[in-house]
Structures are given as structure tokens and as C-alpha cells.
Amino acid sequence: MCGSDKTTGRERLLGSRGAGGTPTTIVPLVHVSVDERDLSSQCRHAAEVVLVNTDQMTAAIDAQRRTIELMAAAAEKADIMPERFVDIATADVGHTDNEVIYRENKLKLRYYEPEQKRHETPIFIVYALVNRPYILDLQPDRSVIRRLLEAGFAVYLIDWGEPSRLDQTLTMHDYIDRYTDNCMAATLAHAGTDDVHLLGYCMGGTMSIMYATQYPEHVRTLSLMATPLALDGTGGILERWANHYNPDTTVDALGNIPAELLAMEFSLMDPIDQYVTKYVTLYENIEDEEYVRNFARMEQWIWDGVDVAGETYREFINDIYRENKLVRGDYEMGDTPIDLGEIEMPVQQIVGEYDHIVPAASSKPLHDHIASDDQRLVEFPAGHIGISVSSKAHERLWPAVCEWFAERDAGRDDGIATDSTADDTSEAADPTVSLGGEVSVDSAEATSGAAATVDAVEGIGPTYAERLADAGIETVADLREYDPDELAAIAETAPGRAENWLENLT
Hints:
Layout: H1 9-13, E1 24-28, E2 49-53, H2 59-90, E3 99-104, E4 107-112, E5 123-126, H3 144-150, E6 155-159, H4 172-191, E7 196-201, H5 203-214, E8 219-225, H6 236-243, H7 247-254, H8 259-267, H9 271-284, H10 289-303, H11 310-322, H12 325-328, E9 332-333, E10 336-337, E11 347-352, E12 375-380, H13 386-389, H14 391-407, E13 432-435, E14 439-443, H15 462-470, H16 476-480, H17 484-491, H18 495-503
Parallel strand pairs: 5-6, 5-7, 7-8, 8-11, 11-12
Antiparallel strand pairs: 1-2, 3-4, 4-6, 9-10, 12-14, 13-14
Helix pairs in contact: 2-10, 4-5, 6-11, 7-11, 17-18
């Protein structure tokens, strides 16, 4: 037992019966009682116990029997260990065939062709600069790329590669205005379309947000997976670390940030699980070939990282994590201010309820800062990686995501154009949709029917509306009485955004 039960393991087992009906008790090998620590559901791995008979007549027999059982189990596992070590060493990843259609510096733009193309608008994936993107194609039955292909979409993915010492001065401006936009141009030319469904994962989602503000004509829809955005006490362990850590010292000393350092940092976010529990679980399941192969693929991805360009790392940690500039409206990419209010295309957010790397609370506020009237928030019961590799995500989440893309495609196979924002049956008209009973979906309601209140103004979400209401600004008429600087101070946003609110009133 774990959690709130305040009795010790010994007290709970007193009165139970062992061999011959005699009382037994628990003798922990690690003396930690439940009332001494808040143990997780994995606490059984931290304190293995052995049943000991308190009846002196049969205690020796019971102990001997238990020892023999453990030795027999260990012998069986030992027999199969060599075979499983081979499985671990030979587990492969990145199964889906693709073609590299564009290269620049270290990056490769990969094209995945569907067997039957049913949608005109392709999916354009921007992955994070940390780790490698084959987590999206880890194995055939758990491949996001395959789910997209099966749905009839062509897929393009930026594989960033690994920066060299010559690349340590690259900034977010280089990665977005230069590399991403060049890849976009190559994609549009190859696909023969004017825009894409832009899909960003983690840091790649933050980069996709920035790109969408600068090049909205290329972005038909914007979808974000576990994307860090609002870091104001909502970013979990990474945000706390960032606030007690000076990236300038690290970058000045190392240049690029080593992949090994980053992998170690992520592992230390949950050290018991990463360094103890998962290996105990592997031992327990060593006879399961498929489990072992899945374990090996994940381990390969975790430790097969890439270095991050030093200046980009410095900029991302300082500006996004430590100073929260993107949400505050103070972030500049190069010399260009990034205004979230420029995002007017349909937006879909996918967050993991159990994500400890990018907590859902650090992603959700996006909806309060953008101007799109076609928004959807999908909260799925999984972690940061689980939303892309768990079996339940592939059974329930990704079919729903593909359907959302299809409803907003530039055209259908019957030639009928799709305009979901004008469709009364679209999800945007329904604030809550349940998918499979385990996925909650929240959609932003259109505000055209409430023209007298401030939340009817394009770009004013619930958070801004609440801040304005606290100052007595509840209607459009109230809003007109203030200038942009005053509204910005009240709503805690940039004057440029407040100016856009007033312009939208005319």
C-alpha cells in the first residue's frame, strides 16, 4: 500500500496467515514506513519485503521455500538474458520510408509519402532542437507519422541534425526566419500548395508559434504538442531550475550545450524512476520480448540526443523560461517583435495531463493571447512522451487529431472546399467535446453574439477580460474610454496588443 495510508507495512500485515495458518509479519529489507515518506505507486520497488513466519516451528521451512522460489525465478531469467541483451542491442527505430528533399547546413527536410493521398494540405512538422525526431516514428504501431500517413496526409519533417562548434552563434532568428522558412519554401514547392498544417512538438511548438506570427500566409492551421509558452510559476521543475541557473556561464564555458548534459538533466527530474524503477521493471518483464524491445527503443532515444547551439540555448532559457517574454509581449526575434495576437488561423493544442516536463498549465494560456476564433485544447491522460508513443494515444488521440486536420483542409477528395470556421457543425461551435470518454476537448466559443462585452473584441481572451473587469472595464463602451498604454498596464500586456483591441472596435 502507498499514498495516504499512515500505517506501517508491519502493522498492516499483522494477523495475516502463512504456512500452516500461523501469523506472519513483514520484515522490510529497507526500513522505511509509509508514514515517514510520501511514497509513489512505485514504492514497492524501493522497499522489497520478505514474508517471515513468526511461528518458530515453520519459520525455517517458509524462509527456505521462499528463497528457493526466488532462486528459481532468477535462474529462469538468467537463461533468457543473453537473448534479451541481443534484442536490446538490435532494436531499431525510424521505420517509415522517407526521402530527403532539401538540405541546409546540418538539417534535412524529410518527405513521407502516403499510400493514398486524400488531403491537399500537407503536415509540416517542426521538432525540438533537443533530442532526435524519430520519437514520432519510434515503431510501426506507435508512429505519429504513420497515423498521419494512414489518414491520407503527406508529411514533411525538419530533422535539425547536430550543430558543430561553427554553429554555436546561431540564434532563434536563424532557426526560424532562415532555416524553417527555407524548409517551408521547399515544402510548398514540392507539395504544390500555398500553405500547410503546421505541427510543433515541445520547443518546436514554441518555434512554430513564432513562425506563425511572422508568416501566417503559409500556415493554414497551427497545432502544438506539449509546448512551453507561459512560464510564470506554471513551468514545473524546468522553470524552477531555470530561475536558479545562469545559462550564460554554461554557454560561455562550453559553447554548444552537450546532449549528454541535457539528457542527465531530464533524467534527474525523476531520478528514482529513471535510475531505479524502470530497470527493476525491465527485470520483471525480461521474458517479454516485445516489452524489452520497446524499452530499448525508448532508451536509445533518451540517450541519443543532439547538442544545442549555445546562443539559441541562452536565448531560449533567458527570454522564454526566465523572463516569460513571449507571453508578456516583450520577445523580439532578431529585431522583430513577436505578437501572439497575430495568430488568427485555427489553433489546436495537445497537452499531457501528466506531463512533468512541460506541464499543461504552461501551455494552456496561449488561448488567452491569440486572435483565432477557431481554437481547440485537447487534454490527454499521458505524459510528455506518452502523447506520441503510448498505445492509447494511437487508439484515441491521433485519429481525432487527424480528423481535425481533415475538417480544415484546403480541399477534399470530392473537390468540395472545406471552411470549418463557417460550418455551424464544427467543434468551434461546441465548447466541450468528449473523445472516447478519456479525452477532454475545449474549444473557444465565437464571441460575435456578445458584442457588448469586452470578450467579444478580437484578441481579448478570458484572462484579459478578467483583468479588465477588475478595473471596471466590462463593456466595449468602457474599453473605448482608455488609451492603449492604460489598457496595457491594466491587462498586463504589451501596448501594441491593446492598440489592436481598440483598432478592432472600428
